[in-house]
Write a structure and sequence with these properties.
homotetramer; 156 residues; alpha+beta; Thiol Ester Dehydrase, Chain A; 5-stranded antiparallel sheet; 4-hydroxybenzoyl-CoA_TE (chains A, B, C, D); HotDog_dom_sf (chains A, B, C, D); Acyl-CoA thioesterase (chains A, B, C, D)
Chain lengths: 156, 156, 156, 156
């Protein structure tokens, strides 16, 4: 199995460590002339999955309110490609929290196709900042609690 | 020659009726698995060309100012494909005003490749609206004047 | 109600004339700095809906086979925006055949949000061509039959 | 200065270590409702810059030939965001080789705006594979020579 710097062991137990997932289909417009999913597509999937994850745990709503002063920004993001993705494949995009910082959260991502093959994995840090000052804003106790309140891993 | 509903005669004189153009390259990520430019790409090119056009005539700046209350929105837009576009082709994206309305402007678009072949044409209406009320805002005399101050058609 | 050139009367009966629909969500990455869905997004939705429609009636499969010599290409496409779309809105993207030509088909599109408001409508012609010659390939009797075998309009 | 795992010291001397760059403008459609460049955009810029780089050193041409059996694929790619990017900023996208493997190459990327501020950095591995078998194909001596034939760093 491929060695990935931010994963201790990329095996079945790693795959089972995710308790949240979101379904996505590889769009025709996300393929390129080499006949496969273009390498930029997973970053859109990560964003979609991350937002659904934040909605589920209940911290997205405040960010989206019109008088919201706090917004989440991506500090860094990366993707490792395990095997090529193709048009019309149904991707189960798994998201989990790896580590919670003062005003940031490190997320892991995993994309699995309908044959239960891993297509890609990824990780990245999201930081909560003030929209106006651009400075980081520490998580409230309530937000931390919500992030820690994760369900038991479901069978993906 | 292809008949296009919004063009009287799609010939060399139509091509020469444009006095503004913007250079664009077909990106790898804008191709699809059929090996050519995906049909969604020209709409991004139209937006790029339209913005450069509005900047040139001097009406874009007010829309982009942070306290700007007025924004331009696309009311309708369309594209007719003349021949397939391919990766790395250099497109001369031509833009011109077809008609100025009370608070709208009808623009024509033309994409020509490096061999001077027409790849696609298009048109669409942009309306100036109030960001808060969502209602249309008539052009000022100054804005109309700027839109009418077009240079002589350059040799594209 | 807005007057749209390719629709006789854009009313409830027009909305009920669609018998196929596909669900789509407006992605965060499909919004722009004006806070709404960017005008290029519906063209991706049209492509997604069109492909699901062609899969349902059973003519997509041949186009996707690796030894497929025939592919569908967009000859023209257009969109009329009725009201602004926003992040996270669930769009019911309706697709129907308006007219079948010798080697082409004219499709109509309609995007409705979760409040049953029409956000945008569109139309466009898809032509079946030979991948190698680039020339149009007439529909077979089987393909025409499949396109005519439409179900009764469902309540959208 | 931000600490980035794959850069020894992210300082002026790092910035001056690039000898190739490509100009890109942040498109309106690449912004999102938070008012800045969406986090997925740099991956498209990396692809554009990488392709221009491969064209310059002369190894892109073989990959694009119609009877080409070898294609480059992205094995992994990542981006670290230094400061927010905004609509219409002109980005100087720098690309350089960090390490050449048997059939892969590790590239570094750097995006600088018109005020010479670093907006983002990145890195990623591209592997040359056989289009049909999907297996990696070692670089030829000629290809390696071309990759090593880098000019002196120019003043970016």
């Amino acid at each position: 199995m491929k060695s990935i710097s931010y994963i201790d062991r990329f095996d079945e137990s790693y795959r089972n460590s995710f308790s949240f997932s979101h379904r996505i289909k590889i769009r025709f417009s996300e393929t390129d002339m080499f006949g496969h999913m273009n390498n930029t597509a997973p970053f859109t999937y990560f964003e979609d999955g991350r937002i659904e994850f934040f909605k589920k745990i209940g911290i997205m709503q405040a960010w989206m309110s019109s008088n919201g002063e706090k917004i989440p920004v991506v500090a860094d993001i990366q993707c490792d490609f395990i095997q090529q993705g193709f048009f019309d494949e149904e991707i189960t995009l798994c998201v989990k929290i790896n580590r919670i910082g003062t005003s940031s959260v490190d997320l892991h991502y995993l994309g699995i196709n309908q044959n239960r093959e891993s297509l890609f994995v990824g990780r990245g840090t999201v930081v909560q900042i003030s929209k106006h000052s651009g400075k980081s804003v520490p998580w409230s106790e309530e937000e931390k609690k919500r992030m820690l309140q994760l369900e038991e891993p479901e069978n993906l």
